[in-house]
Specification:
With 126 residues, the protein is α/β, with parallel strands linked by helices. The chain has one domain: Barwin-like endoglucanases (Beta Barrel). It contains two helices and six strands; from the N terminus they run αβββββαβ. A six-stranded mixed β-barrel has the order 1-5-2-4-3-6. Strand 3 and strand 4 form a beta hairpin. Keywords: Signal.
C-alpha cells in the first residue's frame, strides 16, 4: 500500500512540474516584468544566442530586459494563474510583448489558445 501511495504522489509531483500547475511561486529574487506574453514559431531554428530552439525556449525584448543566454525564466499567466519555466535563448523586437514563448508552452502549459495570441502575464528570473 505504501508503494502505491508514494508512486501516486511522485507522479502527481512530476505531472505538476510538467504541466505548469505548481501552487507556489518559485523562490526567485531577481527581475520581475509585467506585460503581454506572446508566442512565435521558433522551434527548430537557431536562436540569437546560437542554440537550436526547443519547445521550452523563449525570446526576451531587446533593450528592455536582456538576461544572459540560458537564463531560467518563470512565466505566469495572470488570467488563470498557470506557471511555466522556459529558458532565454533568443531575443527580438517584440513590438507588443515583453516575452515570446513557443506555441506548446503558450497553449498547453500556460493555457491560452494561440488564436488569441496574447497572455496578460508576468515573468521573473534571477
Amino acid at each position: 500500500m505504501k508503494r502505491t501511495i508514494v508512486s501516486i504522489l511522485t507522479g502527481a509531483t512530476l505531472l505538476g512540474g510538467i504541466t505548469g500547475t505548481a501552487f507556489a511561486e518559485p523562490n526567485l529574487a531577481g527581475q520581475v516584468v509585467y506585460g503581454n506574453i506572446t508566442y512565435y514559431n521558433g522551434e527548430g531554428k537557431i536562436g540569437a544566442d546560437g542554440k537550436v530552439l526547443s519547445s521550452y525556449d523563449c525570446a526576451t525584448k531587446i533593450g528592455f530586459d536582456e538576461p544572459p543566454a540560458g537564463t531560467r525564466i518563470a512565466v505566469r499567466n495572470l488570467d488563470n494563474n498557470r506557471l511555466a519555466f522556459v529558458y532565454k535563448w533568443d531575443r527580438g523586437s517584440l513590438p507588443n510583448a515583453v516575452l515570446d514563448v513557443m506555441p506548446y508552452v503558450f497553449s498547453n502549459i500556460l493555457g491560452q489558445d494561440t488564436y488569441y495570441g496574447i497572455i496578460h502575464g508576468r515573468y521573473f528570473h534571477d
